[in-house]
TrEMBL record:
This is Kinase. Residues 634-708 form the ACT domain. InterPro entries: ACT-like_dom_sf, ACT_dom, Beta-grasp_dom_sf, HD/PDEase_dom, HD_domain, NT_sf, RelA_SpoT, TGS. Keywords: Kinase, Transferase.
């Protein structure tokens, strides 16, 4: 069975971007081929073969000048003359069919001109210089962008490197990928002439690369037909079962009545009574969509085989329709989605809702304007030339090209780092497999597009590239967060950067890196520093490494002279000592408890140890501070993990003239490290300055007084 024959929907059904052509039959390519080889027409009229393209083009662009298309066709036909496709048709039928697909979608003249010529440089004696001289630099650039690299020069790397070249070209002009998608669609339609293994190989690349690109560019018409063609080739048995489901539903609808038609009539009646002008049509699901719904819901009923589309004139009318449907019919509130207020990253705008029928079936309803529908079907093709002067002017009702500055910018950034072809090819497929994009915001108001599931690590590398090695933490929506934190759409992210120019990433970051750019940057650093096996931290750094077996203990410093307790106890003749669980220092509010040996132990009032003393009914003794001198205190520093942190902290403490009695560093947890220091201060009044100095160390986000673990 040919790939073209297995296509379940004719282009007239699939390509509904313009209802004016919905009843137009499929063009007979053999007849087109015969017309193409009859020779050029007289100069005052169009060749018959290009007439269909011009007709479709003028349906979208009534004022278009067809002369450039005539000249492009004549060059393409004469250049390809004598070449045949594997199907036996003249080769010129391929660029004609590709151009017709784009014309039906509403592509502008420059794109159609390049489409007619897209194989001339690759397969004939025509040069890029000739194309540029005859048709201008824009057409030359588009033709060059879709021209394959030679297998003679690149071998097995020719295909992935060709895609890399096309993606880079698309970064400058998105029309390059529009032509490639139409080219692949026509090739998939006629793939049956290839041997089975080649069909499967092409179908897999289409599934992994071209279909996701069509989705990202919003060209749903091409995406859905490509999905069905791939489905028929890679899963023929499931495709056949799905085809039988669709045929069976059509038979039932003809015999018992069509559920969706009945619901559409109800919708028309509701809107007519409300005085809302709208066009209500039924959109049958394509084969892959039916297959997905069947896997999700099990047995299908009539309403599951399509959706109702309501087309109106203005944005406000969309919400008016929604209100009427939710008032007069039974809405399924959980199915409501507003992609008008919050458009998808690929230009898509629509209201989605669903209404329940008396028989229990649920009919899905899409509500959009005619302009939204055109963009939803044709995506970037509907934008014309998004780089022309004034194309970004919001007054024309069209939004900006979705490839700037979102997913394509990220892809172009990381592909530069993926020098190895295999890494590029595998990473490209993995990147394109990520279905959704989120938008996060920076404190300065800037926006950053990331794939769904991205973490703060990904945000850091997206913003700073390899400078993100110096990232030590983040704030998400104003609160401190670990770098592993997964971001949600609409989050505000502030990345905290260290000052160490020689900063090093942690191997643990790879577990939280979702984007290729982050992973490639981290892996490249780790590959060039193989002597740092744990986390990529410097070998001389005494900071703990992930997976360590316990707290790292820095040996006690030489014992300082005993601290002067300076405690005046309201009980004459009674000695006092400072409790080591909370190490009180002036001017802490304190209390005392009588313990064995007639000694009073002094705690901070809020100390958990003091609370236990009270609950044990220990005798509480009034105490107050006397003259102070040296004192001992325990501080806890909370920080993000980074190389050399312990060394920097101990240096900051030493510069304050404070002796370290002991220090303990716990194993890191989610990139956070807890340092506990017992310190000998020359004067209790110096404590606030010491704590400020410790907080000023890069990576430290909090310093506080500690309680001994036994007191918890």
């Amino acid at each position: 069975m040919s790939a073209e024959a297995t296509n379940p929907l004719t282009p007239a059904t699939v390509t509904t971007a313009s209802h004016r052509r919905k009843n137009r039959p499929r063009i007979d390519l053999r007849r087109l081929g015969r017309a193409a080889v009859l020779g050029p027409a007289a100069r005052d009229r169009l060749p018959d073969a290009i007439g269909h393209v011009v007709e479709a083009h003028r349906a979208h662009h009534p004022d278009a000048d067809p002369d450039i298309l005539r000249r492009a066709y004549l060059l393409a036909e004469s250049s390809h003359r004598g070449q045949m496709r594997k199907s036996g048709e003249p080769y010129i039928t391929h660029p004609l069919a590709v151009t017709l697909i784009l014309a039906e979608l509403g592509a502008e003249t420059t794109t159609l001109t390049a489409s007619l010529l897209h194989d001339t440089v690759e397969d004939t004696e025509v040069t890029l210089e000739q194309v540029g001289a005859e048709f201008g630099e824009e057409v030359r650039y588009l033709v060059d962008g879709v021209t394959k690299l030679e297998k003679v020069d690149y071998g097995a790397a020719a295909e992935p490197e060709t895609f890399r070249k096309m993606l880079v070209a698309t970064g400058n002009d998105v029309r390059v990928m529009s032509i490639k998608l139409a080219d692949r669609l026509h090739n998939m339609r006629t793939l049956s002439v290839m041997r089975r293994e080649k069909q499967e190989r092409i179908a897999k690349v289409t599934r992994d690369v071209l279909i996701p690109l069509a989705e990202r560019l919003g060209v749903q018409v091409l995406k859905t037909e490509l999905e069905d063609l791939v489905f028929a080739i890679l899963h023929p048995e499931e495709y056949e079962r799905t085809r039988e489901l669709i045929a069976g539903n059509a038979d039932r609808a003809a015999r018992d009545g069509d559920t969706l038609s009945e619901t559409a009539d109800e919708v028309r009646g509701v809107l007519r009574e409300a005085g809302i002008q709208a066009e209500v049509v039924i959109r049958p699901r394509h084969h892959v969509s039916v297959h997905r719904v069947a896997r999700k819901r099990g047995q299908l009923r009539g309403a599951d085989f399509g959706r109702i589309l309501v087309l109106v004139g203005e944005d406000a009318d969309c919400y008016a329709v929604l209100g009427e449907l939710h008032t007069c019919l039974t809405p399924v509130v959980s199915e409501f989605k507003d992609f008008i207020a919050v458009p998808k990253f690929n230009l898509y705008q629509s209201l989605h809702t669903a209404v329940a029928r008396p028989d229990g079936q649920v009919a899905e309803v899409l509500i959009r304007t005619h302009q939204m529908h055109r963009v939803a079907e044709a995506g970037v093709v509907a934008l014309g030339n998004p780089y022309a002067p004034g194309a970004d002017d919001p007054s024309d009702g069209e939004r900006a090209d979705p490839t700037r500055p979102g997913w394509l910018s990220r892809l172009l950034d990381w592909q530069e780092s993926a020098q190895d072809t295999d890494m590029f090819w595998s990473t490209l497929r993995e990147d394109l497999a990520q279905d959704r994009e989120i938008t996060v915001f920076r404190p300065d108001g800037g926006a950053l597009g990331l794939p769904e599931g991205a973490s703060c690590v990904d945000a850091a590398y997206a913003l700073y590239g390899e400078d993100a090695h110096a990232c030590i933490g983040a704030r998400v929506n104003g609160r401190l967060a670990t770098l592993s934190t997964v971001l949600k759409d609409g989050d505000t992210v502030q990345l905290l950067m260290g000052q160490d120019v020689a900063s090093e990433p942690s191997r643990e970051w790879l577990e939280h890196a979702h984007t290729p750019g982050a992973r490639i940057a981290i892996q490249r650093w780790l590959a060039t520093h193989p002597s740092d096996p744990g986390t990529g931290t410097a070998a001389e750094d005494p900071a703990p490494r992930p997976g360590g077996g316990g707290a790292r203990h820095v040996p006690d410093a030489p014992a300082p002279r005993p601290a002067s307790e300076s405690v005046v106890v309201d009980r004459p003749g009674t000695g006092a000592r400072l409790a080591r669980c909370c190490t009180p220092v002036p001017p802490d509010e304190i209390t005392g408890f009588l313990v064995r040996g007639g000694v009073v132990t002094v705690h901070r009032v809020e100390c958990a140890g003091a609370a236990r003393m009270r609950s044990a009914e220990r005798a509480e003794v009034g105490v107050r501070w006397g003259d102070t001198g040296e004192c001992r205190v325990t501080l806890v520093a909370e920080s993000f993990q980074r190389p050399h942190l312990l060394a920097d902290l101990t240096e900051a403490i030493a510069l304050e003239g404070v002796a370290i009695v002991s220090a303990t560093v716990e194993p890191p947890t989610q990139q956070r490290v807890r340092h506990t220091y017992t310190l000998q201060l020359p004067d209790a009044a110096h404590l606030p300055a010491l704590m400020r100095a410790m907080r000023d160390v890069a990576g430290v986000y909090d310093v506080g007084r500690a309680q001994h673990p036994a007191a918890q």
